[in-house]
Amino acid sequence: MYRILELLRQSEDYLSGEDIGKRLEVSRAAVWKGIKKLREEGYAIEAVTHRGYRLVHPEAMYNQAEIANGMPTKIMGQHVHFYTSIDTTNNRARELAHEGAPEGTLVVAETQTAGRGRRGRVWESAEGSGIWMSLVLRPEIMPAQASVLTLLCGLAVAEALEEETGLLPQIKWPNDVLINGKKVVGILTEMDCEMTQVHFVIPGIGINVNTKEFPPELADIATSLYLESGKSFSRSRLVHAVMAKIEKHYMEFLHTKSFAVLLVAYRKRCMTLGKEVEVRGTKTFLAQALDVTEGGELLVRNLSNDKEEIVYSGEVSIRGVKV
Fold first, then answer.
1. What are phi and psi of 93, to 5 degrees?
2. How far apart are CA 134 and CA 155, in angstroms?
3. How many CB atoms lie within 10 A of CB 162?
4. DSSP assignment, residue 321?
5. 10 Å Cβ neighbour count for 81?
6. Closest CA to 108 of 245, 231, 176, 127
7. Residue 205 bridge partners (DSSP)
C-alpha cells in the first residue's frame, strides 16, 4: 500500500493502474485494493478514466505513516504513536515511559479531549488544525538540571517555526512561544524522578498551525501560523523540523551538561528580558526582567526594594502583554 503511495508522491502527473502494477509487479486488482486502503486512511486520491490516479494535497495528510516517513533524526521521533483522539498526549507518553519506551518516543494526536496548559488551564486541541505531541526523554542528569529542558524545547520550537514559516517567533520566559504578542505554542513539561536520578521527562508541545479562528475568550491572546501568515502549513513537515531542532539542542545539552551553550540564542528570542513584569508565586510583585541564568531561572530586579531576585518558577506576565 505505501509503495503505491510513494509512486504517487513521485509522479507529477497521473499514473495508470497498469503502470503502477508493472512497477510494483502486482496485479491491477491489488493496485485498486491499495488505493482503497489509502483512501480509507484519509489520502485524497483522484481517479480519472484513461489517465489513472493522482495524489491530491499530500501536504495536508497527517497520520502515523506521514509523520514517521522521512523523520530527519536519529533519536527523536524514531518511534511514533499516533492517535486520532486521546485525552492528552502527555498522559499516554507517561504510560509508555513507565512501560519502558525508548528515548525519543513521540506521541501525536489529531485531537485531545482533555488538553492542558499551565496550572490546569484548558488547551484547545481542535481536530485538523494543530500539532499536539509529547516526547519521552531519558537524560542522565540530576533532577535539578532538568528544568532547563523546557527552555530548550521552547527555543527549538521557535527556531523550527521561523525556518519553516519565515515568521519571527519570540519566547516568553520560560517556554511560551509568541508571535506579535499572541501565543502560538504552549509547552507543558512533566518529570518522573528520585532524589538523584531522572527516570524520564515528558515535554508536551501544542502548536496552533492552521487554526482560522479562536473563540472570543481566546481571540485576544492566541494566534496560529495561518492567521499570522495567511498560509497553511504541512503539520507533518513541522513535526519533522521541531524534532530535528530538539535533537540538535538536546545532544548539545547532554554533551556539556549545561544550558550555557544555548543561552545566547535563547536570550535573543526572549521577549521577557528588559520588560517590566508581574511575578506571581509565593508573593506577588512588580519587577524588571534582567537576565536568564545558566540554570534557566529568571533574574529580576524587584521594583519595590530595588533588589535582584531569582525567579525559579511561578507565573510571570509581561506588562502590556495579555498572554
1. -65, -40
2. 16
3. 16
4. -
5. 20
6. 127
7. 133, 187
Q: Which residues pair with 170 in a beta bridge?
A: 178
Q: pTM (2 decimals)?
A: 0.86
Q: Answer yes or no: are the C-beta atoms of 133 and 89 closer than 8 Å.
A: yes
Q: Give the residue among 214, 207, 111 at the shortest CA–CA distance from 162.
A: 207
* Residue 75: CB atoms within 10 Å: 17
* Residue 208: strand pairing partners: 130
Contact 300, 280 (CB under 8 A): no
**pLDDT (tens digit, 9 = 90+) per residue, 92-120?**
999 999 999 999 999 999 999 886 655 55
* CA–CA distances in Å: residue 94 to residues 102, 192, 214, 264: 12, 9, 29, 32
Task: Give CA–CA dist 53/149, Å, rounded.
Answer: 46
Residues 281 and 314: beta-carbon distance below 8 Å:
yes
Kindly calculate the radius of gyration of the chain based on its CA atoms and give it in whole angstroms: 22
> Does residue 154 contact residue 177 with C-beta atoms inside 8 Å?
yes
Q: For residue 193, which of 153, 146, 152, 253 has the smallest C-alpha distance? A: 146
CA–CA gap between residue 93 and residue 132 (Å, rounded): 12
Enter the C-alpha cell of residue 303. 521594583
Give φ, ψ of 237 to 5 degrees: -65, -40
Give the pLDDT confidence of 216-266 residue by residue, as tens digits. 988 899 999 999 999 999 999 999 999 999 999 999 999 999 999 999 999
The amino acid sitting at 120 is: G
Alpha-helical runs (H) found in the chain: 2-10, 17-24, 28-40, 64-68, 89-98, 148-165, 225-229, 235-256, 260-269
Backbone region of residue 214 per phi and psi (left: phi > 0; alpha: psi in -120 to 50; beta: other values): beta
Coil, helix or strand at residue 297: coil
pLDDT digits (tens, 9 = 90+) for 267-288: 999 999 999 999 998 889 999 9
